[in-house]
């Protein structure tokens, strides 16, 4: 994919059908890359698990969770994006570097962020899948290996954080269920009692602010 990007950007004119097709393909890949190589995956998965743990059904709506995830991702990725703009985009716009150099600098800066969040075991797993030797460290690991390893690491971290968030709510569900059974109230759904208690606890500890701060801090 990198070769395709380089050829497309380096071409002085995008007049031929092949060039236009390549440009449209690259534009179509931008949303996928924005999701898979940034902090968005971890954030949106944790928020989804939090909603499931609260037991509020479809509230908050998925669109609201995605919007919050995008905003948090923009804040988390701001230093990396600023560095890419400073080292790659602005010099390219000023015609001080070529498109190939700009692309390489941007990829290196993004890879630096990704390596800090990626587990070595995941990098080795995908290097083994791709049958590429891992020489000592992952500093110069190809992007095609680093990207899926980063995505798997983000999912692993997100599920670990989701477990920690769901644990206190699960305790409330268990306590309410035991209390109702001991009182002989078998016809009362535990969710009708536990949901207000979980919402009260979440609001009392300023849950949304706490979760957002913890998610942002997890990328440092």
Q: Please outline the major beta sheet.
A: none
Total number of beta strands: 0
The secondary-structure class comes to mainly alpha
- What is the count of helical runs? 9
- Spans of at least 5 consecutive residues whose pLDDT stays below 50 are 1-15
Q: Determine the N-to-C terminus distance.
A: 29 Å
Q: What share of the residues does DSSP label as strand, in percent? A: under 5%
How much helicity do the residues have?
over 70%
What is the helix/strand order? Answer: HHHHHHHHH
Mean pLDDT: 79
What is the count of distinct domains? 2
Radius of gyration: 23 Å
- What is the general shape? elongated
Overview of this protein structure:
The chain has helices spanning 2-10, 17-36, 40-54, 62-93, 99-117, 120-129, 143-182, 190-204, 207-217. It folds into two domains: 1-36, no CATH class; 37-217, no CATH class. The longest helix is centred in the last third of the chain and has 40 residues, at 143-182. It is mainly alpha-helical.
